[in-house]
Write a structure and sequence with these properties.
The protein contains twelve helices and no strands. The chain folds into two domains: 4-54; 78-299, Orthogonal Bundle (MetI-like fold). The chain is globular, with a radius of gyration of 25 Å. α11 (253-260) runs antiparallel to α12 (270-299). It has 305 residues and is mostly helical.
């Protein structure tokens, strides 16, 4: 018959083994994620270096013509960059005010029951497939634009920007709502004690106190808009056009990647390598915006005791 001390020792050993197994599994999960990221970056970097051995980086980043699959190819990425930023800017005009106002209402005005209904409904927008957004833009928004502005192209940046803006509203709203709800109630009560109205408390106390999180939500939302693929490909078209006119057809970086990766580009060719050069450019831009959002949160964060 074993003693109580022996039983306790066996239990501790079994618990330690269990903890070690769990720790190893968690480490393996983190390692796999890290290795996948490193692998993606390594492939992008390798093919991008091979591309820039044949094409000058100066020509790539300053050229105004993008015809890599033609007989006389041109590799100026500015039309793709302008298309991506044109859609992202239009999406920001739609998503930032709608997302922020929705967050203020959910955080400051709605009761628990109403919030429990509205927030899930708002976040459903993030679950709709992007292909559906693209066809919604093509079959509903574009005809409306052409009714008001007949010179609008069938494929245009404006309709793409509108649907992408609707897509990123949940991102902006959810992150801004979290930032607003993190503001201590004592600040609100102090403002009410001084005679401020709910609107004044919301706009002059809560929003400034949560500014770092709100700005970070804006940057992350714009980053999502730059990386959007299918909705933009369907709605904006595949015309690499260096323009600021949202009524014209354009091509974004993601749309070009879709077009060129359909299987018609020979493996190892310069046209094939443009996929990775454009992909690396997109990766660097989105990475920079994510780093910027982290810096904004750290730089403007308000700490309360």
């Amino acid at each position: 018959m074993s003693s109580p001390g022996t039983d306790d020792l066996s239990f501790k050993r079994a618990r330690n083994v269990k903890e070690q197994v769990i720790g190893s599994f968690l480490f393996l999960s983190a390692a796999v994620s890290t290795l996948v990221t490193v692998g993606i970056v390594a492939v992008l970097f390798t093919e991008t270096v091979a591309f820039f051995r044949a094409v000058s980086p100066v020509d790539f980043f300053t050229g105004t013509e993008w015809t890599p699959l033609f007989q006389n190819p041109r590799f100026g990425v500015l039309p793709l960059l302008s298309g991506s930023f044109l859609v992202a800017a239009g999406a920001a005009v739609v998503a930032i005010p709608l997302g922020l106002l929705s967050a203020i209402f959910l955080s400051e005005y709605s009761g628990p029951r109403l919030r429990g209904v509205l927030k899930p409904l708002l976040e459903i927008l993030a679950g709709i497939p992007t292909v559906v957004y693209g066809y919604f833009a093509l079959t509903f928004i574009t005809p409306l634009l052409r009714t008001v502005l007949p010179e609008t192209d069938v494929f245009n940046a404006a309709s793409a920007a509108l649907v992408v803006g609707i897509m990123i509203v949940p991102t902006v709203s959810s992150l801004s709502d979290d930032a607003l709800r993190a503001v201590p109630k004592a600040l609100r009560q102090g403002a009410y004690g001084l005679g401020a109205t709910k609107f004044e408390v919301s706009t002059r106390v809560v929003v400034p106190a949560a500014l770092s999180g709100i700005l970070a939500s804006f940057i992350l939302g714009i980053s999502r808009a730059i990386g959007e693929t299918m909705a933009v490909t369907i709605a904006a078209g595949n015309m690499p056009n260096l323009t600021l006119n949202g009524l014209e057809s354009i091509q974004t970086m993601t749309a070009y990647i879709v077009q060129a990766s359909l299987g018609d580009t020979p493996h190892g060719s310069i046209g094939y390598q443009t996929l990775f050069a454009v992909g690396m450019t997109l990766f660097v831009i989105t990475l920079a915006m994510n780093v910027l959002s982290q810096w904004v949160m750290a730089r403007f964060r308000e700490e309360y005791q």
